[in-house]
Amino acid sequence: MPQEVIDEFTACEIAGEFRGGDDAGDLATTYPIVEIFHSVQGEGAHSGSPRIFIRFGRCNLRCEWCDTNFDEWKDFTVVDILGEIMQYDCQNIVFTGGEPALQDLWPLARCLKAREYHLSIETNGTIELPEGLIDWVCVSPKDQLYPDVGIKQRSGDELKVVFCGQDLSLYDELIDGFDHLFLQPCYFENESVEWNGQNFQATESLVKANLGWRLSLQTQKWLGVL
User: Fold this and answer.
1) Are 141 and 183 in contact (CB under 8 A)?
2) Please, which residues have CB within 8 angstroms of residue 78's CB and are 6 or more apart in sequence?
3) 77, 79, 143, 183: which has the highest count of C-beta atoms within 10 A?
4) Can you give the pLDDT at residue 64?
5) What order of strands is seen across the sheet that includes strand 178-185?
6) Residue 111, Cβ neighbours under 10 Å: how many?
7) H or E element: which one contains 34?
8) pLDDT under 50: residue ranges of the chain
9) Whole-angstrom Cα distance, residue 32 to residue 40?
10) How far apart (Å, rounded) are the C-alpha atoms in residues 137 and 142?
11) Cα angle value 28/33/35 (rounded, 5°)
12) Rounded to whole angstroms, how far apart are CA atoms 4 and 26?
């Protein structure tokens, strides 16, 4: 990576308020990255707005509807990542996966915050995030598939529940910790069009019947941008 990229980010020390550390060491930190791309957010509260997505490899869960091959990745240093994102005129970054919370995100976050990037994360909530690390936290719990896996991240900005027939009361103890509540119908490729259509209708009915919940759709799939 060009020296000017490294030089530009030696200002990582500015972010020492988040956690102390050697910025040169931060720049050399390696992450498993599936892809980095610039697109439009298709889900949740920021739907329709441009974002840079950093998709991490590895996950601690296996969900039937997951659209990510998170078991194949390349090792990227922080410098590699910065070199990728600097080509885009966008200051909003989403950490997604896989499960990004499996990684020590501090080295990357420090360097990005020093550059005044706004950081969001999409997480399954099974790992509690350190305070002050992320600007916008979206938790998408998978209790319906893994009832024995506890939710550790019990507060944030956005709770996004992927609905496939479960009882909404599963989330009664979580909803007070979040500002925005979303129900998103799951889509199973191995199910019939009829089944998926009925699940969408059930999701819509729940949103209409439960004050505070809003409908989230994976519009990126409709547009074919992800």
Assistant:
1) no
2) 9, 26, 27, 28, 29, 31, 107, 108, 111
3) 183
4) 65
5) 74-77, 30-40, 50-56, 92-96, 118-123, 136-139, 156-163, 178-185, 213-215
6) 25
7) strand 30-40
8) 11-22
9) 23
10) 16
11) 130
12) 16
Q: What is the pLDDT of residues 117-153, one digit of tens each?
A: 999 999 999 999 999 999 999 999 886 666 667 889 9
Which stretch of DSSP H or E encloses residue 77? strand 74-77
Full set of structural domains in the chain with CATH = 3-62+69-223 (3.20.20.70)
| Long-range contact set of residues 203-210: C-beta below 8 Å, sequence gap at least 24 | 203/163, 206/163, 206/168, 207/183, 210/168
Dihedrals phi, psi of 40, to nearest 5 degrees: -105, 130
The verdict on whether omega for the bond into residue 212 sits within 30 degrees of 0, i.e. cis, is: no
What does the alpha-carbon distance between residue 86 and residue 46 come to, in Å, rounded to a whole number? 21
Give the Cα separation of 27 and 11 in Å (integer). Answer: 11
Q: What is the spatial distance between Cα 106 and Cα 119, in angstroms, rounded to a whole number?
A: 12
Whole-number pLDDT of residue 94? 99
Judge whether 39 and 225 are in contact, CB under 8 Å.
yes
Element (H, E) at 52: strand 50-56
Q: What is the pTM of this model?
A: 0.84
Task: Give the chain's length.
Answer: 226
Specify the pLDDT at position 2: 52
Query: Exposed e or buried b for every residue in 48-77, given b needs 16+ CB within 10 A?
Result: eeebbbbbbbbbeeebebeebebeebeebb
